[in-house]
Structures are given as structure tokens and as C-alpha cells.
Fold this protein.
Amino acid sequence: MYLWIEGLLTGIVAGFICGLFGMGGGSLMVPAIVYVFNLSMKQAIGTSLFVIIFSAIAALINYIRQSKVYPKLAYFIVPSGILGAQAGSFLTSRISDVLVKYIFVFIVSGFGIRMFLQEENDGGCAGKNFNKIVGIVIGFLAGFVSGLCGVGGAVLIVPLLYIFLKVPIHTCIGTAVIAILFNAISGSIGYIVRSLVDFRIGLMLAIGSTLAAPLGARISIRSQKEKLRKIFAIVLILSGLAVLFK
């Protein structure tokens, strides 16, 4: 029973973060799974990706209802993200847990710092006039990080859409959730076939995350842009440090 309570609470927190920041919750869920459930880093990543599928669907419904998604942009970042996720999950099964850990810390904390220091962006992308090659590259890199580190890809998608395509922060998050969903599906398949997903723990986390993700999405849509961006950045930095000192 105590294990179920831990699983539900962890899932609720991760799902809320998914809805709030479009992060999938993996950057919090991976260290939480390692700490709370004592799984290996690779098992934690695989289980995290599995749970992200459910929280992303729940959050995405709210962003679509509020028109905070650029569907045409998603057409470019999703297919390339799927390819990247497969490449990432293939690589992580062949390198050490220690190396995966430091890659995770470097990417998550590094982009957190960059996002915190970035000047406010009012959005120059109209949802249809954007550099398609840049969109494809962003999708592939985000998918690769998703498969490699189990973070859903938003640690790259949101900052890169914001910085290079000038997408408003709320729409960055809403659009990122679409890519996160497909990246998580693709990446989790890679981990499932390699027996690196704990379905019992994943089910507990999925229940909590699915319940909390819509609430996080509603709060995100109503939040001030600058405050949302800085909180997003701080969460990335702290979650990277949590794994570093494990």
C-alpha cells in the first residue's frame, strides 16, 4: 500500500509538471524513480517514457481546447523526433549508466540556464511561416534526447522553439506536448523490447500523472509569460542537479 501511495504521489507531481511546462515530467520522474523505487537509470528512463504517454495525452487535450498549439509545426518536429527517439534509445542501451547520467545532467541543467537568461520573446512565428529545416532539426534533437535520457524532449523543444523560431512560450509548451507524446511512444517501444520498463511502477505513476496533467495545463495557460519561462528554467536546473548528486 505504501508503495502505491508513493507511486501515485510521484505520478501526480510529474503529471502536473507535464501539464504546466509541457516537459513530459521525465526530468522530475527519472530522478524520482531512481530515488523512490531504486531502479537503475536505464529502467527509470524506460518507465518514465511509458508514463509520459498518458500524461501527455491528458495535457494536450487542454492545450488544443485553448488554441495553444501550432499543428503545422508539429508535422515537422514529430516525424523527425520519432527517428531521434529510436536513435537515442538504441544508444543508451549500449553505454554505461554513468555516462547516461552525466549526459542527462549536462543537457537538462544547461538548457535550464540558457532558458532562464533568455530575453522575453513575444513570438515571431505565426504558426505557418517558419524555417522548416530548423523545425526538422529541432524535432530530431529533441527526440534523440528523449530516447537517450527519458525526458520527453521538451527540455530541447521548448527552449529551441522559443529561441530560434520565436514561438510564444505558452504555444511552445502546447506544441511541445504533441512531440512529447509521439517521442514517448517511440522511445518507450525501444525500451520495452529491451525489457527496460517496469510496468507495475509505470501503472502507479500513470494513474497519478493522468489525473494531474490537465490541472497543470490550465494553470500554465493562465500564467504570466516571463514567470512561466523562469520557473520552467529553474525546474530544469534543479532536476539536473538532483540526478548529479545521486
Summary: The chain has ten helices and no strands. The two ends are 26 Å apart (CA to CA). The CA atoms of residues 15 and 162 lie 22 Å apart.
